[in-house]
Amino acid sequence: MTRQFLDVTVVIPCYNRWPHIQKAIDSVLNQTYRETYCLVVDDASTDGTYEALEEAYQGNPRVAIFRLLKNQGQSAARNFGAQHVRTQLVCFLDSDDMLFADAVSSRIKLYHDDSNFHGISFGQKEIAGHDNPHPDDRWRSSDFLTLNDYLSCKDLLHTNTFMMFTEDFIKSGGFDTRLRNQEDIELFLRLLTKYEARYSGAPCCRIETVDNQRARHDLKRIIEQGSQFSTAVTGNQELTEKASPELLQALLEHDLKVTLNALYKSKRSKDYRHLLKSSWEQGLIRLNTRLLKRYLLSFMR
């Protein structure tokens, strides 16, 4: 038995992204799966993006544009968008990236082919300037992605590449708005403890880097976030019970290193030394040459 009808909305959060966002929106409108709609959430842009969007797409029945009066970050914008989705399925796209023409049809096919499948469908991502897509050619259509698969390689899922039933996304709580870095990883870990994930076997999106506004470059926000990511992960009892302890520990250690790197690059030497020393004493991080070298250099900065 196959599902007779499914429709999908692609939610695009944006902040000061005109005219780059046009490419993202147009890639949604050019999908071969016709029951595809676009919902844009402008996160209180200050460069006229919202006004330009209104002028460019006003009257298009497949595009809805919302505006937040106060900048709240991508997670809040995505969650707001999902709350206003009226289609059965939802997926997401960053405002400076694009979907391939069959991105929706290849993922939605998994739901059409198996009426009992109610989990996450995901496709392949490509990154501009890189030759290695994820998942790679070893993966086949309908292959399952497990929680430990994802912990082993977090490139296997991306915000642009997953699709799920809107009702389930909202029920999950969506993106954790307290996080401004690695919020996608925290979401996928949470989802993979509850939902089955299957690979579409087809290219889904191309990731472009228009500038350095991506979260991993925002040292201030990484420092402000501190240990909130690790707290969210360790506070998820279902996750800690199902995940490999070794892989989970590696994830938490990586998060610590991200914060340490931000502190070092921001020349907050005293904070860097304090966090490194306390983390080592608690057994949360293993010392290596790079960390020790930076520890010594921090006294001269």
Descriptive labels:
42% helix
Provide an overview of this structure.
- The structure is a single chain.
- The chain has 301 residues and is an alpha/beta fold.
- The chain folds into two domains: 8-207, Spore Coat Polysaccharide Biosynthesis Protein SpsA, Chain A (Alpha-Beta Complex); 218-300, no CATH class.
- It contains 13 helices and eight strands.
- It has helices spanning 21-29, 49-57, 74-83, 103-113, 147-152, 166-172, 183-192, 219-225, 228-234, 237-242, 245-265, 269-281, 289-297; strands at 8-14, 36-42, 63-67, 89-92, 98-99, 120-127, 162-165, 197-207.
- The radius of gyration is 20 Å and the shape is globular.
- The mean pLDDT is 95.
- Summarize model confidence as the mean pLDDT: 95
What portion of residues is helical?
A: 40-55%
- What's the assembly state of these chains? single chain
**Strand order, largest beta sheet:** 3-2-1-4-7-6-8-5
Number of domains: 2
Helix-and-strand structural type? alpha/beta
Supply Rg.
20 Å
Strand residue content: 15-25%
Q: Could you state the order of secondary-structure elements as H and E?
A: EHEHEHEEHEHEHHEHHHHHH
Instruction: Output the number of helix runs.
Output: 13
Tell me the overall shape. globular
Write the layout of secondary structure elements.
Elements (H helix, E strand, L loop, with lengths): L7 E7 L6 H9 L6 E7 L6 H9 L5 E5 L6 H10 L5 E4 L5 E2 L3 H11 L6 E8 L19 H6 L9 E4 H7 L10 H10 L4 E11 L11 H7 L2 H7 L2 H6 L2 H21 L3 H13 L7 H9 L4
Helix pairs in contact: 8-11, 11-12
